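In the previous chapter we treated chains in isolation. Here, by contrast, the input contains two separate entities that must be folded as one system, with a combined length of 514 residues.
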Amino acid sequence: MFERLLALDRRWIFLFVAVALTIPFFLGLSCKSYVSPEVKALYAALEELRPNSKVIVSFDYDPASEPELNPMADAFMKYAFHHRLKLICIGLWPQGPLEVDRCFNRVLADPEIQKLNPVYGVDYVNLGFQSGNEFAIQGMGASIYNVFPNDMRGTATSQIPIMMDVRDFSNVDFVFNLSAGYPGTVEWVQVAVDRYGVTLGAGNTAVQAPLVYPYLGSGQLKGLLGGMKGGAEFEALSGHTGKATKFMVSQTFAHLVVILFIVMGNVAYFAAKRKGGRA
Amino acid sequence: MNVSDWLALQVAALLTLGIVSFLYKDNPIYKICESIFLGVSAGYWFTVLFWENMVPKLYENISQAGSRPYTEAGVPSLLYVVALILGIMMLLRLFPKLGWMSRWPLSVVVGATAGLWFITYMQSNALSQLRATLLPILDFQAMDAATGTGLSGWFNKYLGNLVILVGTSTGLCYFYFSKEHKGVFGGLARVGIYFLMVTFGASFGYTVMSRMSLLLGRIDFMISEWWPSLFSGWS
């Protein structure tokens, strides 16, 4: 029996995981999220910002990472609009500006946000994509107008009301980076934080989160949303419940299946070893 | 929903199923979907780079250099001619006889990157991290200021700094290869391995969560968007 378990076709595991992820969609369950200190720290840093503070939001991801980062982006934008923060959106990935537009489309469709009547160019702007990775961040430290000469609609950046007094990082109150890899949070810490003294918070894919935890301990990063769990925690804190909270039930089910298979695999391995079989 | 949106949904669903079919086994439909993905990505990157970088930054600055000698940031517009020449030299790799000229722009890229990274890594990854490791173990005032409640709060207050100190020190012992890992030093290196294993375990846990999230995104799309579209049709 243990030999059969060890030789189990991995496609069965895929099937079990897929079923575990799908079933909660039809059960209507919900689960409570414990809010971790790094998410609380990010929220506290945002709470310190006064209305009309200038916030750069860098969308450094592509559609492949949407399930993890879109819920964070949506919750952050809703929080920002409710607190009257001015949003300057950019992308260091070519798909970034597209994600910005899609995010605004989703958030501005919310009746609660429509009541606030945010205006493009005054309350938020999409400056588009710039190549150069960390060199683009370095350039923004000297002149944002030079790195992003126009916004996505072709208007000169210096002529956009929200940008008129934002020449470089010294005119920016907070940077929030949504990152799925390179360039991303590591580069923002290395250049924007350590060279220009920018205050940075980040939302990362779960794969990348462990890489940036050291920056959290050293204070280079004010707070961090790690993966879907981080997104769900931020949704819970900000009161803008969205897909991250909904998906955490499926995540929990799937994790239980994975843990079950790990336990079964280990039991089978050691049992087969004791019997002198394949192991 | 109009026809184009409806068709886009069907194409997205077919491509999703095509890619996921690889989990069963490799097949021609998966290969087709993979090739479409690569082609569309490359085309998208090229288009965005051309229209958002080459046109507004290179072409417009050079073509308007006569009427506008300096950019809004005070950079001479004609300086972009140097970038244009270096870019053309990079493309000369395509011609074997002139390929040697591509080494010049490459040397500029390597030199600038090395210069920037040397400083940033020294500052961000060495000095700042070193400073963050020099923590008081018996500073009760700092311990009381540590955040958290319950068991994790108690851990943060009284053991957090000690764990960072022991983990960093023993981890460094493991990566010190000029002395054989024997005796007390070997024991410390072994403790370092345990810390590394915990780190890899945590990282693996996050990776599992990340992969599940990606699959969840696709399942949500199929259930919430594609399936209803089959019955709603288009208008």
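Strands of chain A lie at 54-60, 86-91, 124-129, 174-179, 200-204, 223-226. The mean pLDDT of chain A is 92. Compare these points with the single-chain example from earlier in the chapter.
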